[in-house]
Amino acid sequence: MTPYSPQPSAPLLAIRGLSKAFLGVQALDGVDFTLRHGEIHALLGENGAGKSTLIKTLTGVYRRDAGTVALEGREIAPRGVEEAQRLHIGTVYQEVNLLPNLSVAENLFLGRQPMRFGFVDRGAMRRRARAVLSGFGLSVDVTAPLGRFSVATQQIVAIARAVDMSAKALILDEPTASLDAQEVAVLFGVLRALKGRGIGIVFVTHFLDQVYAVCDRITVLRNGRLVGERRTEDLPRLDLVAMMLGRELEAAAHRIAADPAADTQAGTDARPPLVRFRGFGKARSVEPFDLDIRPGEVVGLAGLLGSGRTETVRLVFGMDRADRGEAAVDGRTLRLRGPREAIRLGFGFCPEDRKKEGIVGELSVRENIVLALQARQGWLRPIPRRRQEEIADRFIRLLDIRTPDAERPIQLLSGGNQQKALLARWLATEPRLLILDEPTRGIDVGAHAEIIRLIERLCADGMALLVVSSELEEIVAYSRRVVVLRDRRHVAELRGGEVTVDRIVSAIASEPVPAGPEGAPA
Amino acid sequence: MTLPLPGPAPGLLRALPQYGALAAVLLANWLLFPDFFSIRLQDGRLFGSLIDVLNRGAPVALLAIGMTMVIATRGIDLSVGAVMAIAGAVAATMTQAGWGLPAVLAASLGAGLLCGLWNGLLVALLRIQPIIATLILMVAGRGVAQLITEGQIVTFVSPGLAAIGSGSFLTVPMPVVITAALLAVTALLVRATALGLMIEAVGVNRLSSAGAGVNTPVVLVAVYVWCGLCAAVAGLIVTADIRGADVNNAGLWLELDAILAVVIGGTSLLGGRFGLLLSVVGAAIIQAMNTGILLSGFKPEFNLIVKAAVLLAVLLLQSPALTLLLPRPKGARPPLGPPLGPPLGPAKRESGSVKP
Amino acid sequence: MIHRFLPLIVTIAVLVVGFLLCALQFPNFASLRVVGNLLTDNAFLGITAIGMTFVILSGGIDLSVGAVIGFTTVLLAVLIEQGGWDPPAAFAAALLAAALFGAAMGAIIHVFRMPPFIVTLAGMFVARGMAFVLTTDSLPINHPLYGELNDVAWRFDGGGKLSLPAMVLLVVLALAVVLAHWTRFGANLYALGGNRQSAELMGVPVARTTVAVYTLSGLLAGLAGIVFSLYTGAGYSLAATGVELDTITAVVIGGAQLTGGYGYVLGTFAGVLIQGLIQTYITFDGTLSSWWTKIAIGALLFVFILLQKGLLAAWTGRGGEPAEA
């Protein structure tokens, strides 16, 4: 490893007034960002804050509308990840952008293999690969396919490639999203070593604990704007969460008393739960949790992005299969084997990623609305066309779905109307438990309010609801109980009068208790 | 639907390119050969070039019916030609061995169903890519057919079976009648039940469909089984027509014609909306072109080149790259994802569960 | 290590064990003559399959190769017999035509983002059609050079010989191994087949590589056509029908993933020889019928696809796909 000679005159990376709009929506609005030599700098923000737009505009994947980027005082304008890499800015994504089928050495040197007599010198490539990786404390068989190694190792190989290709600034986009605690520790060791060599690291993550563990500085974005830059030690967790969520908190720190789960059963509600989960969880996805939902109840799931909210509801619906714990519906223990079983039990699920997992794009609004009902009835009992039209028209009216007619392909509707059509799909099955993951994401204000009103009406009708949302006011408005998640754990359960935005924020920001399963009440 | 006309156009309008193409080809034939449309009745059966087009087009049309649904689920079945050979071999061998017509038909169609089941299980349960899964039977199937006939060209004398190939019903040649009947039965099966909806849903978005409770494995198996059945019927007709099973040549390369017919019919290779009738129209277009080339005095050798040109033209019309270049009426297929992407918040799942 | 080469090792083991079993059953089997014939008889198939391997490694497929072979034999016959060309000039023209044909398909695939399956299917129609247009008859090639070339052989004691086609095959094989593993082009192919998007991000020239790989496949199919015309001494537009299928089968048996990114040229070579071995066995046996070849190859194909599916799942740990049903 060559010793590093600092040039303290100019910051490593200086971004000034960066702006980017998509179709009139301002995704980045005059953002400043400064990365210094030898620091790990967290870039934080909730969904839509502009983190990934910032990274992609910085590396030239998107063309910027305005602003400057300077590397060590010299202005640069790369036109893509590859060119940015040549300009000493390396990017490593969460979904490792290497090739699992190539060997570790080939991944490190693809496109810049050592050559001899016009041919790839495989021996030299292996030796250099070993040398490079040993600098990262990694000793692996460099001839083995990369895909056989853990995600953590792959991340380190990706980082090694970027650094070896002379990166001075390294952008890590959610590198720890699929790592376990031990792997995170190894990765952090690597990051600290790089920092020691004067490399500046932009660290995008959702895990606040990791921010405090490894980052020197924090920049927070919200709605495409810079909220502020702070030194980590000067920024208490609560303030950080407030910056991210964009609210002023009156009382600085409510520490909520750990809410014993015994309350769940001993609470005021004596009705038997509709569904009951005990120690339900999945490795690397969400820690085991307990959850009861009663008929007519609205349970909110709150937490920052990546805290395990989506993972929780996917387990509940059987989209992902739990590998531990048990589930019971109406007091009967059963295995949730998949969505079809969940639907038979009277569940419905509007996923967060509407386009990929929700709508069937080319099919009409009518077909999308009747799909779940039809699937439950089986193909041999078709819903007559007229009945389908009735159902579609009823929900189009009821939910005020803006479409010229029911025959329009659903992909042509706006996001909010697609969401309402998906709601209609489940309402048509008259579910007992409806699970909504970010039901108001990407939806304009008017539709937003309608969907909230609808949620309120639904639970008044006796249906149970489990709702994930980043909008805390929204959750507070309709939830009777709120489960708060942090770092893939259920850390608190608020009920009745406790359900306030401040309490939720405090719970999200609460310091982790070092030992013991504080998040998984016995 | 990927052909140019967008949105909720009425069926006939949406199918205009296909009917237009068919009309154009027929018209060209008529110009080259003024007797093209003349039909005469002889021995209680219709004769004429047009009838000939329908009659000869029947096997490909039959294959196209099954293939349409497979392609609608975003799959493909390369084995239909081999399945034709197997079905023909079973029918010829059993007839020669003295079995009655009902048993022969049942066994032959049963063989087709079994082949389809095999393909379907590989695709739906073992999750092997359709093109690879059906390649196995494409390779081995003809061998199985030869095994059944012991390598011989098995000929038979059975007026009953022969009638399937060369007989007529109410003056219409039997293959045409059978094709029309199978088309009607298939259409009924998918459109009078919810199967059609589910096939399209699975083809457009398998994940969303599964999430809505559609039993995707069963749908997939069903379409391959039906495709096997259609191939068996086609195999029976070819065998009955020549009164023998020539397993080396029966159905050879017809899978490609069937795929071509489906593509011409406007069903996208990317799955989704399908039109059974239009695929049959596609088969008719192919056969009409063949006949036209023959009639025009061109060497039949040009046939393949014309076919390739048509295939490329249709594909170019459907090409996502081209759709991006051309201005499209509002409401057509939206442009492919990158580089713009969703403006706010990338549409990706929250952390953890995304495996690289 | 064992893991990475496992498909290759299994294929070669199947070949070796198969050969040993044959040798045990028929005393004459284990001879240089049989081995030499195996190579000669399968030379054109092997050369084509090597080109196919590259295409499949890059994540594509080329259905046109059989038709290109047929077209090449016809073109050679027409040029030499009717046009009076010297065979070497005709060879060069045929190779150029085949390579350009492949390049055109590659360009269409890349520029219009069309599925290779369907573009090369159209290519198959075009090549076969052009061959038909040239002539539908089987044209014998009687040029004296053909006789001389067919006499070129490296003879061994005991009647064995390494014919010119076999030598061409072995040379192509050696070059192909070098190309796959000792050049940047080879690495780029594997990268492209592994993940197109990642490869692009890592600086792989996707357009150039795509066009190049179909050009290479066309070129090798053209070469196979020359070998085939030497072997049969004629040009025939229906020559080598179905070869695309045999080559794809050889590639899969050879341990490659049809989805791209995994596979070895050497494995394909073994795959070709396994197919040839089955045929030779059936010839030696004399009582077995030829259709067992197809059935055996189909069964092998199935087993190898399953094996690879299992291996891939084990490697990438992709056990838990989203729940369905």
TrEMBL record, chain A:
<dbReference type="Pfam" id="PF00005">
    <property type="entry name" value="ABC_tran"/>
</dbReference>
<feature type="domain" description="ABC transporter">
    <location>
        <begin position="270"/>
        <end position="512"/>
    </location>
</feature>
<dbReference type="GO" id="GO:0005524">
    <property type="term" value="F:ATP binding"/>
</dbReference>
<feature type="domain" description="ABC transporter">
    <location>
        <begin position="13"/>
        <end position="248"/>
    </location>
</feature>
<keyword id="KW-0677">Repeat</keyword>
<keyword id="KW-0067">ATP-binding</keyword>
<dbReference type="InterPro" id="IPR003439">
    <property type="entry name" value="ABC_transporter-like_ATP-bd"/>
</dbReference>
<keyword id="KW-0762">Sugar transport</keyword>
<dbReference type="GO" id="GO:0016887">
    <property type="term" value="F:ATP hydrolysis activity"/>
</dbReference>
<dbReference type="InterPro" id="IPR017871">
    <property type="entry name" value="ABC_transporter-like_CS"/>
</dbReference>
<dbReference type="InterPro" id="IPR049716">
    <property type="entry name" value="YtfR-like"/>
</dbReference>
<dbReference type="InterPro" id="IPR027417">
    <property type="entry name" value="P-loop_NTPase"/>
</dbReference>
<keyword id="KW-1003">Cell membrane</keyword>
<keyword id="KW-0547">Nucleotide-binding</keyword>
<keyword id="KW-0813">Transport</keyword>
Automatic annotation (TrEMBL), chain B:
<feature type="transmembrane region" description="Helical">
    <location>
        <begin position="78"/>
        <end position="99"/>
    </location>
</feature>
<feature type="region of interest" description="Disordered">
    <location>
        <begin position="332"/>
        <end position="356"/>
    </location>
</feature>
<feature type="transmembrane region" description="Helical">
    <location>
        <begin position="176"/>
        <end position="197"/>
    </location>
</feature>
<feature type="transmembrane region" description="Helical">
    <location>
        <begin position="304"/>
        <end position="326"/>
    </location>
</feature>
<feature type="compositionally biased region" description="Pro residues">
    <location>
        <begin position="335"/>
        <end position="345"/>
    </location>
</feature>
<feature type="transmembrane region" description="Helical">
    <location>
        <begin position="250"/>
        <end position="270"/>
    </location>
</feature>
<feature type="compositionally biased region" description="Basic and acidic residues">
    <location>
        <begin position="347"/>
        <end position="356"/>
    </location>
</feature>
<keyword id="KW-0812">Transmembrane</keyword>
<dbReference type="InterPro" id="IPR001851">
    <property type="entry name" value="ABC_transp_permease"/>
</dbReference>
<feature type="transmembrane region" description="Helical">
    <location>
        <begin position="105"/>
        <end position="126"/>
    </location>
</feature>
<keyword id="KW-1003">Cell membrane</keyword>
<feature type="transmembrane region" description="Helical">
    <location>
        <begin position="277"/>
        <end position="298"/>
    </location>
</feature>
<dbReference type="Pfam" id="PF02653">
    <property type="entry name" value="BPD_transp_2"/>
</dbReference>
<dbReference type="GO" id="GO:0022857">
    <property type="term" value="F:transmembrane transporter activity"/>
</dbReference>
<dbReference type="GO" id="GO:0005886">
    <property type="term" value="C:plasma membrane"/>
</dbReference>
From TrEMBL, chain C:
<keyword id="KW-0472">Membrane</keyword>
<feature type="transmembrane region" description="Helical">
    <location>
        <begin position="211"/>
        <end position="231"/>
    </location>
</feature>
<feature type="transmembrane region" description="Helical">
    <location>
        <begin position="296"/>
        <end position="315"/>
    </location>
</feature>
<feature type="transmembrane region" description="Helical">
    <location>
        <begin position="118"/>
        <end position="141"/>
    </location>
</feature>
<feature type="transmembrane region" description="Helical">
    <location>
        <begin position="63"/>
        <end position="80"/>
    </location>
</feature>
<feature type="transmembrane region" description="Helical">
    <location>
        <begin position="6"/>
        <end position="26"/>
    </location>
</feature>
<dbReference type="InterPro" id="IPR001851">
    <property type="entry name" value="ABC_transp_permease"/>
</dbReference>
<dbReference type="GO" id="GO:0022857">
    <property type="term" value="F:transmembrane transporter activity"/>
</dbReference>
<feature type="transmembrane region" description="Helical">
    <location>
        <begin position="92"/>
        <end position="112"/>
    </location>
</feature>
<feature type="transmembrane region" description="Helical">
    <location>
        <begin position="262"/>
        <end position="284"/>
    </location>
</feature>
<keyword id="KW-0812">Transmembrane</keyword>
<feature type="transmembrane region" description="Helical">
    <location>
        <begin position="38"/>
        <end position="57"/>
    </location>
</feature>
<keyword id="KW-1003">Cell membrane</keyword>
<feature type="transmembrane region" description="Helical">
    <location>
        <begin position="162"/>
        <end position="182"/>
    </location>
</feature>
<protein>
    <submittedName>
        <fullName>Sugar ABC transporter permease YjfF</fullName>
    </submittedName>
</protein>
